[in-house]
Amino acid sequence: MKKQRLLLLVLLVVAVCLYAGGKAEETSEMKVVKIGTLGPLTGPGAMWGLQQRQAAVIWAETVNDRGGLLVAGERYHIEVPGYDDKFDNAVARTACEKAILDGVKFLIGPNNEVQNAAIRDICHAAKVINIGIYWDPKGTGPDTPFSWCGMMQLPQATPLLLDLILEKYDVKRIGYCFWDIPASRIVQDDIAQVARDKGLVVTDETFFAPGQVTDFYPYASRMIKGNPDVLDMRGGPQEVGLFAKSLRELGYKGLIISEHELDPNEIISVGKEDADGIITQMWMYDPATATPELRDFHDRYVKAYGTWDSAIATKLLHPFFLAAAIQKAGSTTDTEAIVREMQTLQLKSPYQEGSPLIRATGMEYYGANNQIAVPFPIGQIQDGKPVALDVFYLPAEAGVTYEPPYEFQW
Q1: Are the C-beta atoms of 237 and 266 separated by less than 8 Å?
Q2: Residue 46 maps to which CATH number?
Q3: Cβ 84 vs Cβ 40: under 8 Å
Q4: Are residues 135 and 87 located together in one domain of the fold?
């Protein structure tokens, strides 16, 4: 009897080992592609780094649940390793070097021009594609084809926003209050000039330390002395809310706008009445009009992170655009071929009604088609709720021969 029990035990162990070995072999047979994220997960810029990372993670989950990324007839499991640059140049460089050692060929981020500049030469030398979020007219160009900008630049977006405001409101004077970071300093002269070109008088241009100011009364008091009709405040959502609260309590009746991509619910949380009328970048989610792909992404995101963030719908387009170029190139390693596909790609977006084209742009602004023209959605807080106003898209670049519109292969 003991021999029989021993024999059964041995057979059971063998069976378990064979099953486990079979599962290990099955898992190891599926190839992996790593799309890493590099950005601030802590510190004053964490809201943008977390948005970028969470969007990439949920998008990869969606693809993996459908069998993996299809490239040249094979399926690849997408891994999304994350690297925190803490809004610090030295940390960004170290994190980038670590990512390359980890075998990452694609990086979403960083979320600031100085961190992007800090890793640009590293990525170029290693032929690693990075899609940064920054306001830097020198952030990419013909000599840095692996460095991409993943947003509309302010000199591109500001005219669109001002045209919308001038159409809806009688405004003649504008003041600016921005984060005191290189990004703001780099573009502010251009932004002010755009306003002047539109016939507006610039009343003030002031800066404040990000994440360090909780009392905005001195800033608000100074700025309303110029009698502005509209004030442009670029900061975090809590800071915009506090700025608005200070302005309203001091009697300011004019318009408040922000060209940052912000969560309107965070602004409202500071003060519902004070937030009323604020115009900013925000992509509202409406289940009645959302496409099936966006509904699926929304539900996955809320399940994972609790609440919807209005900035997420543009952030998910970065890994989507990159993966489509990988598909078209037929390779997960030949980044030179992938960049060539990116520069002429026009990708149908299943996340917006009518499947608008998300395309490469940047030739006029950067001298190279190294920019992903994600939408520029504008909304307004009305009666304590965010309301969509318009969505802008950059046109195709003149003189660029684009590929026919491409539909991602799930």
Answers
A1: yes
A2: 3.40.50.2300
A3: yes
A4: yes
* pLDDT (average), residues 204-233: 94
**Does the pTM exceed 0.85?**
yes
Query: pLDDT of 26-48, one tens digit each?
Result: 345 789 999 999 999 988 788 88
Q: Are 39 and 53 in contact (CB under 8 A)?
A: yes
Give the bridge partners for 113, in sequence order. Answer: none
Region 245-271: mean pLDDT is 92
Mean pLDDT throughout 221-228? 96
User: Packing angle between helix 217-224 and helix 237-249, nearest 10 degrees?
Assistant: 60
Q: Is residue 399 part of a domain?
A: no
289 by DSSP, 3-state: which? coil
Q: Are 52 and 37 in contact (CB under 8 A)?
A: yes
- The residue range of the domain holding 235 is 155-281
The residue type of 7 is L
Choose one of 264, 281, 298: the last residue of a domain: 281
**Considering only CA atoms, which of 300, 367, 322 is closest in space to residue 137?**
367
Instruction: Tell me the CB-side half-sphere exposure of residue 242, using CA atoms within 13 A.
Output: 16
Q: Report the domain count for the chain.
A: 2
Residue 351 C-beta-side C-alpha neighbours within 13 Å: 22
Alpha helices for 250-392 (secondary structure H): 264-270, 272-275, 292-305, 312-315, 317-329, 335-343, 363-366
